[in-house]
Amino acid sequence: GSSKSESFSPLRTAMHSARQTGSSQLKSLLGIDPSSSVEMTESDLRQCMEAFRRFENKQGRFPVAKLIEGFEAAQTFVSETVIEESMNSLAAQGVESMEFYDFATLVCSKKLRKRRSTHACLKAIFRHLDQDSDGFISAEELQMSVEALMGDGQAGEPAERLAERMIGQLDTSGSGKVSYDQFVCMLNHSISS
């Protein structure tokens, strides 16, 4: 019994000093570039703070064992295996809890990575629709895509009219074309409505 705690004491001391020097060590353990600052919006921070308060231990730190619930409470939906990887790498270093800043950094960096992969998918779809590669989707390009996806007129209105209606909703400048940002706005709008 006692020999185990003795072999652990140097690690505990090392972890304690890492805690004093800040979170760069913890970041590198979690595969986050220690020099990078993680983007955190105000709502990200608010959600992280609520999640942190819900699960924090007596020392005012977030227990690593509660990471999966913590991510859920912070409304960051990352696969459990991804979170478990972080839990395992922390446990391997003897880290049982973390300060708020580290918890928020972990949550927001995973959120950002997820956002980036979504962005990459959307970019690929946009490039596919933008057949002449001019950086815009025209009504004709959209119409061809609508026809390919649904067949002409299966949606109860001809593909041409549907494409024009979609372009009309998006095209705020009246150019008859849609930029990538407008395309993303439309998708966000249709998802949230």
UniProtKB/TrEMBL annotation:
Residues 117-152, 158-193 form the EF-hand domain. Keywords: Calcium, Repeat. Residues 1-29 are annotated as: Disordered. Residues 1-10, 18-27 have a biased composition (Polar residues). InterPro entries: Centrin_CML-like (IPR050145), EF-hand-dom_pair (IPR011992), EF_Hand_1_Ca_BS (IPR018247), EF_hand_dom (IPR002048). Gene3D superfamilies: EF-hand (1.10.238.10). It comes from the Eukaryota. GO terms for molecular function: calcium ion binding. The keyword Transcription does not apply. Pfam families: EF-hand_7. This is EF-hand domain-containing protein.
